[in-house]
Specification:
The protein contains 8 helices and 5 strands; from the N terminus they run ααααααβαββαββ. A 5-stranded mixed β-sheet has the order 1-2-3-5-4, with helices on one face. The radius of gyration is 33 Å and the shape is elongated. Among the domains are: about 25-110, no CATH class; about 210-350, Heat Shock Protein 90. Helix content is about 55%, strand content about 10%. The longest helix is centred in the middle third of the chain and has 64 residues, at about 115-175. The protein is of the alpha+beta class and about 350 residues long. Helix 7 (about 250-265) links the parallel strand 1 and strand 2 (about 275-280).
Length: about 350
């Protein structure tokens, strides 16, 4: 797996690059706690030695007051110093509670003392292991889902579609033999039957486009854009003339993300213009879908559709970036951009 990025993360205290850590900062947490407590105790002893303060027996009222104030000062000072030492660990815990496992590039930077660094390193290793296991499990799950989609689509096209076609032929023969007005009524039934057949064909196409298996990714994406193109929505595509050989898994991920992004732009964003571009390079692949729709608030509006696209992107080692400007936020800055980046297609390219 490619080395994860470790950008600055909100919630973790970073050390200034021009600040030189004292030698005691690299001590273990146990040693630092002992040092803090010993320092506070030593200061209390020195205070008794170098000042005229004394304690007699029986103790006087003013001496009780001095001892009480001293105890409070020692407790507060000890608490403040310990809080400073444990501050890094608290920030790490907060970040662990809020990290998004679908964004593995957000691994925690290893900062703080030895214990904090060890804890962060272990947590990052755990995240990488969980990502690998989740990717393997999700690959098996999505493979089973796509297989079931393929089976259902084939059943719809071959079985139900053929039966409806046969029924249409029988209705046609019946309409030819019937007088009016029965012939017209049978004609209406035929129209309804044709509409149902078209809907079943469209559903079978959505479940598993045959062009993806027969003619490849470019033809399937072109057909997808044409199927959603209508007078109220114009879809402009920018596709390469030829495509490097990719595995069926990678082609399916690109197609499904393009399908989800286009469908969201048409049905939910009410876009009037959509631009779909696919760029394949020797070192990677980029799919970009941009629309001029209403947009949404990021990240609170990330529903199951976007989360599903992120899961699919992780299956091929890619990253999904979603940017949106809500309507009215900035002039001429509305719409949504969905971008899929696969940095190393050689890791998933067909042999």
């Amino acid at each position: 797996m490619a080395a994860p990025l470790t950008p600055p993360v909100v919630g973790v205290e970073h050390q200034r690059s021009d600040w030189v850590r004292p030698a005691w900062w690299n001590l273990s947490l146990y040693a630092r706690v002992v040092l803090v407590n010993s320092t506070v105790l030593l200061l209390a002893v020195l205070t008794l030695v170098v000042t005229p303060l004394t304690v007699s027996f029986p103790i006087a009222a003013e001496q009780v007051l001095v001892l009480a104030v001293g105890a409070v000062v020692i407790a507060v000072g000890n608490a403040v110093l310990l809080r400073l030492n444990f501050r890094g660990l608290r920030a790490v815990v907060r970040r662990m509670q809020t990290i998004d496992v679908l964004r593995p590039e957000e691994l925690l930077p290893e900062t703080g003392g030895p214990e904090a660094k060890s804890l962060i390193a272990g947590f990052n290793v755990m995240l990488e292991r969980l990502e690998t296991e989740r990717r393997t499990s999700a690959r098996r799950t999505l493979s089973a889902i796509e297989g079931e989609r393929r089976r259902i689509g084939r059943e719809l096209h071959d079985e139900i579609g053929q039966r409806l076609t046969g029924t249409l032929l029988q209705l046609q023969r019946l309409a030819d033999d019937l007088p009016e007005p029965f012939s017209s009524e049978v004609g209406c039934i035929q129209e309804q039957q044709r509409a149902t057949l078209d809907e079943i064909g469209a559903l079978a196409w959505q479940l598993r486009p045959a062009l993806l298996d027969d003619l490849g990714l470019l033809s399937a994406v072109e057909a997808l854009a044409e199927s959603l193109d209508e007078p109220a929505v114009r879809i402009a595509t920018s596709l390469p003339e030829e495509l490097t050989a990719l595995t069926p898994e990678l082609e399916l991920v690109v197609y499904r993300i393009a399908q989800e992004a286009l469908t969201n732009a048409v049905r939910h964003a009410h876009a009037s213009r959509i631009e779909l571009g696919l760029e394949v390079r020797a070192d990677g692949l980029t799919l970009r879908v941009t629309d001029d729709g209403t947009g949404f608030s990021v990240p609170t509006s990330e529903g199951p559709g976007i989360r599903g696209m992120r899961e699919r992107a992780l299956l091929v080692g890619g990253r999904l970036h979603v940017g949106s400007a809500p309507a009215g936020a900035r002039p001429r800055a509305q719409g949504t951009t969905v971008r899929l980046d696969v940095r190393d297609i050689t890791a998933v390219a067909a042999p």
